[in-house]
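ok, trying the design again with the full structure, not the truncated one.
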């Protein structure tokens, strides 16, 4: 639920030193580029960072090892530390702002199984698998052309109040209920648009210190069972961002300082 700034502009700001601070050795977050056809449209996404990175600026994105990450805030003080093994820590200070960030992949994959563990959580509003799908061939008047999805794992705020209920299902031993909401003319990966949000909300929140899996195909099927089709999740044709998929920590207007930490990995072949 962030306000998007085209990353070409962010990259220019970063080059001018206006986007915030990264430790000097991490400025080498470099001219090396990720060799993926189409991603070069989003120059910031091709950046590769050292094996460990600590980000404090307002906007940053790129790759650490095989992991893509996003780091975004509209003010306040929040930082993201992560390494090439998928370990991450988000620290935030109380204040009136929105932060979202975490590691994952620069595209969604319906067959991906996401492994994760959360070690700390001081009250993040959402810790969630988060991503986008986009189909530029569909009319923009149809909210289904662009979908923002959340598979919540821990949360302090339940977003289903104004949503349309879909179904209840079980995935990897966890019971989820699905909901759909609509965002009308709001910022997105494709400029200001009207789009759907899909939510999968567990009946019980995931505990700290344990390994879990998200079988993404189960959620894609559950949404489709009620007619909610997610569009292309490997798409570089949106105006501002590709259709990434990350384990995101989101805080909005946090009342006090906090921390969330853990690790993410691709469990598809395990």
């Amino acid at each position: 639920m962030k306000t998007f700034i085209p990353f070409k502009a962010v990259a220019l700001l970063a080059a001018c030193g206006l986007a915030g601070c990264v430790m000097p050795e991490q400025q080498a977050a470099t001219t090396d580029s990720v060799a993926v056809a189409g991603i070069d449209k989003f120059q910031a996404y091709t950046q590769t960072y050292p094996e460990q990175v600590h980000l404090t600026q307002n906007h940053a994105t790129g790759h650490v090892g095989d992991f893509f990450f996003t780091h975004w805030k509209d003010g306040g003080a929040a930082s993201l530390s992560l390494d090439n093994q998928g370990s991450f820590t988000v620290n935030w200070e109380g204040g009136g702002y929105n932060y979202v960030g975490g590691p994952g992949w620069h595209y969604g994959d319906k067959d991906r199984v996401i492994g994760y563990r959360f070690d700390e959580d001081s009250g993040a509003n959402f810790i969630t698998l988060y991503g986008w799908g986009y189909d530029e061939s569909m009319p923009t008047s149809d909210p289904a052309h662009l979908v923002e999805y959340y598979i919540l794992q821990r949360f302090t705020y339940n977003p289903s109040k104004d949503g349309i209920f879909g179904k209840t299902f079980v995935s990897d031993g966890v019971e989820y209920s699905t909901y759909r909401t609509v965002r009308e003319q709001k910022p997105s990966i494709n400029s200001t648009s009207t789009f759907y949000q899909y939510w999968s909300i567990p009946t019980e929140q995931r505990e700290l210190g344990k390994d879990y899996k998200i079988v993404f195909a189960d959620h894609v099927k559950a949404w489709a069972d009620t007619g909610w089709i997610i569009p292309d999740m490997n798409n570089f044709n949106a105006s501002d961002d590709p259709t990434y998929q990350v384990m995101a920590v989101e805080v909005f207007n946090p009342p006090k300082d906090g921390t969330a930490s853990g690790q993410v990995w691709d469990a598809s072949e395990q």
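Keeping the full-length input from now on. Residues 2-33 have pLDDT under 50 and may be disordered.
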